[in-house]
Write a sequence for this structure.
C-alpha cells in the first residue's frame, strides 16, 4: 500500500470551541491511528473525517472506501479486544474516557465512529 496518496476530506462545525483537554488529547492519537490504518490496510485513496460536537458529546467518524475489514477479524476484535495494535489502542483510549467505539465494514469500506461524552462548562 505504500506510495498511495491519501486524500482526506474533513467536515467539522463552522464555529469550533475548545473541547475539554482530556477529550482533545484522546481525539488526536485516535484520529492519527485511524488514518494510519486507512493508509496501511484499506487500499482507499480517499477518507472522510467528520467531527461533530453537540448534546454534550463529540463524535469522530472516519470513513474509507477501501476493501473493508474481514468479518472474522472484526468478530475476533469484539470478542477478544485484539485485532492488531491500532484498533486495540483506539479501543483502550476510548475505554479510559468511558466512550463508545463502533466499526462497520464491508466491501465498500470501513466506518469507524467514536463517541465521547463531555462536560460542557457553564458560563
Amino acid at each position: 500500500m505504500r506510495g498511495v496518496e491519501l486524500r482526506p476530506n474533513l467536515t467539522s462545525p463552522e464555529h469550533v470551541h475548545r473541547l475539554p483537554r482530556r477529550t482533545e488529547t484522546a481525539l488526536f492519537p485516535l484520529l492519527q491511528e485511524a488514518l494510519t490504518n486507512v493508509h496501511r490496510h484499506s487500499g482507499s485513496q480517499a477518507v472522510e473525517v467528520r467531527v461533530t460536537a453537540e448534546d454534550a458529546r463529540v463524535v469522530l467518524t472516519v470513513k474509507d472506501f477501501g476493501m473493508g475489514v474481514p468479518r472474522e477479524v472484526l468478530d475476533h476484535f469484539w470478542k477478544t479486544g485484539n485485532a492488531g495494535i491500532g484498533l486495540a489502542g483506539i479501543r483502550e483510549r476510548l475505554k479510559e474516557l468511558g466512550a463508545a467505539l463502533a466499526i462497520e465494514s464491508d466491501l465498500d469500506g470501513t466506518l469507524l465512529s467514536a463517541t465521547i461524552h463531555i462536560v460542557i462548562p457553564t458560563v
